[in-house]
Amino acid sequence: MTGAQQIKLRHLVPSIVTVFAICAGMTSVRMSIEGHLEASLYFILLAVFLDAADGKLARFLDSASPFGAELDSLADFFNFGIAPGLLLYNTLYIGTEHASLGWLATLVLAVCCALRLARFNLSIQCTDVTLKRDGFFVGVPAPALACLALMPVFLHLHGWQNADLPVARTIYIIGVGLLAVSTLPTYSIKHASIKRAHLPFAVVGAVVLVVCLLVYPWPTLIVGNVIYLGSFPFSYLSFTRMDHGSAVTDSRFATSHDEGDA
User: Fold this and answer.
1) Alpha carbon distance 209, 200 (integer Å)
2) Residue 252: exposure state from Cβ atoms within 10 A (0-12, 13-18, ≥19)
3) Distance of alpha carbon 45 from alpha carbon 25, whole angstroms
4) What ranges in 34-96 are assigned the alpha helix state H?
5) What gap in Å lies between CA 242 and CA 182, rounded to an integer?
6) Cα 206 from Cα 212, distance rounded (Å)
7) Whole-angstrom distance, CA of residue 74 vs CA of residue 186
8) d(CA 27, CA 32)
9) Coil, strand, or helix at residue 187?
10) pLDDT tens digits, one per residue of 32-82
11) What pTM, to 2 d.p., does this model score?
12) What is the pLDDT of residues 206-232, one digit of tens each?
């Protein structure tokens, strides 16, 4: 047909992966409603994997587009803001006297995720707003937000049912949500690098991590969350030191430049 626009199939692949991620999030909600807790968690983890995959595919196939970015943001909001919140509510709060407290935590988590992604969309269109800088994220990214928020469920599955502290749990979930919209610099694994000599150790470590996730998923995720939370002071100090060093360098450059003009 004359004038009809042709779309290469490779441009559709990242969006198809994103649609599969939405399906995983929807299935997670269904599993949590039906009481299949572990299956619900697995589908959220699958959505995390697919979220990482669609971005990598878009860059590899050179098929990034505004449509794909918007679809990815909508998928992230549902998969990492809505589905984890409903899982937390259905597992730990519904049918108890603290149901309203749990619903409050769910609402805050969803709203913070939406605000985070709205800021992300704005950062794509406006250079004055950024969520990435010098290998750091500004705040906690959406997939990490979901994993951190689900920590009470991981503890529940690990056998800590007796440690029922609904108020503390709610405060924790709300605090995690606020981390997503904060300006706290957090490490970005995407921009991490290692020396070539350390590559064998990194490969072995990755294999061990995968095996632990398959054999001991909930303890591994608990430890991963604790390590990630413990990295915040170090990421803040690293970013502050780097930012200060950049400011000193810029100051020296400006001084030498002024002296040259004089």
Assistant:
1) 14
2) exposed
3) 9
4) 37-60, 66-77, 83-88
5) 19
6) 10
7) 23
8) 9
9) strand
10) 999 899 999 999 999 999 988 888 887 777 777 778 788 888 999 999 999
11) 0.82
12) 888 888 888 888 999 999 999 999 989
Identity at 145, one-letter amino acid code: L
What gap in Å lies between CA 22 and CA 71, rounded to an integer?
10
Tokens of 261: 């003009």
- CB count within 10 Å of CB 189 equals 12
d(CA 106, CA 85): 5
Please state, as a whole number, how many other Cβ atoms lie within 10 Å of the Cβ of residue 2.
3
Tell me the C-alpha distance between 227 and 190, whole Å.
Answer: 17
- Rounded distance between C-alpha atoms, residue 243 and residue 136, angstroms: 11
Spatial contact of 152 and 173, defined as CB atoms under 8 Å apart: yes
